Amino acid sequence: MEATNLKQFQCENEEGYDRQSELKAFDETKAGVKGLVDAAITKLPTIFIHPKTPQNSSNNVSTANIPIIDLQGIHGNEMKRREVVEAVGEASETWGFFQVVNHGIPGNVLEEIKRGVRGFHEQDTEAKKEWYTRDSSRRVQYSSNFDLYTTPAANWRDTLFCVMAPNPPHPHQLPPVCSDILIKYSKEVQKLGGVLFELLSEALGLHPNYLNNIECNKGLSILGHYYPACPEPDLTLGTSKHADNDFFTILLQDDDIGGLQVLHQNQWVDVPPTPGALVVNIGDLLQLVTNDRFKSSEHRVLANQCGPRISVACFFSTNLLPLSRIYGPIKELLSNENPPKYRETTVKEYVAHFHAKGLDGTSALLHFRL
Ligand code: OGA
Ligand code: NI
Q: Where does the pLDDT of residue 9 fall: very low under 50, low under 70, confident under 90, or very high at 90 and above?
């Protein structure tokens, strides 16, 4: 056999070759992981199998608890506000993760958005397919694994992604089963986000409006995740290890399934479902502008056997807008002892890099480090 033919033959037998066609076949069903579950598969398709690395093994789990911060009273009581600012700063520096309670979003709205996301994923497949796309310029994108073709192993998860701000969508641009609640919930989250940016600014010793003034709160996307029950949950993940590509994320998770874990001091720590609470996690862009003072912690979601698990992740970032605003380490935080650790960039450039890289287990921030 000639050398070139031999090469081709080997290539066809390599996992990579079959993988591409398997990925394509899965993608073309436009029915996501939910479609596989509906078809009653009992074995995990190879494209979802993750290599068993020490990082992926679930043995290395700590019992530490992420902080819970009570926001009650921050608008009238100055002493209480100071305490909360300190707790938010401490949690952002050490964990990059905390939960908030008494955050002002009514419990019935939290229930309604989870029902809305579930309703989207569980509606008639034919109706859902209309929203399936990999066109990243669309303001509504339903897909399974945004990085399906680049990630080393696919995740057991489907996602509805909607850009909600700036320029809020008209209800008719959104999937009918959840359009009203998406709009209502995003208004609530924007209000809470503005308050959290104030608290974070104060924790940095800056003017309360600092982060809002540099438009960290300007863009909001909602990701409605659906993690179906998995026939072989130990072989895959719901979401691979990653850090978020935004300023911060406000995450609402299911009350009972669990599976979200944050990497803290090199150990996985469970983020337990806490009814009524919201999880806040610092994203890469806030780590960049604070010159590493706040931590964008890596996290992942385990696959589960008793789902579906629903989560609603609200990302503060303007990633779909071609905004030219430049972000770099905040000058007021820098000194001779604390020189800039990152070069300046735009949200657009940062997010393009994140997407091109996919969830491969490495940090997108490294690319911008000086
Ligand atoms: C994310 C994320 C966690 C979850 O959307 O980036 O980490 O619980 N989600 O779904
Ligand atoms: Ni995340």
A: very low
* Cβ pair 365, 288 in contact under 8 A: yes
Residue 206's contacts (CB-CB under 8 Å, 6 or more residues apart) are 330, 332, 333
CATH H superfamily, domain 3-368: B-lactam Antibiotic, Isopenicillin N Synthase; Chain (2.60.120.330)
Supply the angle between the helices 179-203 and 107-122 in degrees, to the nearest 10. Answer: 130
Q: Record the pTM.
A: 0.93
- Reading phi first (left if > 0) and then psi (alpha if -120 to 50, else beta), residue 10 is in alpha
The binding-site residues of ligand 1, defined as CB within 6 angstroms of any ligand atom, are 223, 225, 239, 244, 251, 253, 260, 299, 301, 311, 313
Q: How far is the CA of 14 from the centre of ligand 1 (A)?
A: 32
How far apart are alpha carbons 208 and 188 in whole angstroms? 20
pLDDT of residue 5: 40
Cα 221 to Cα 140: distance, rounded to the nearest angstrom: 10
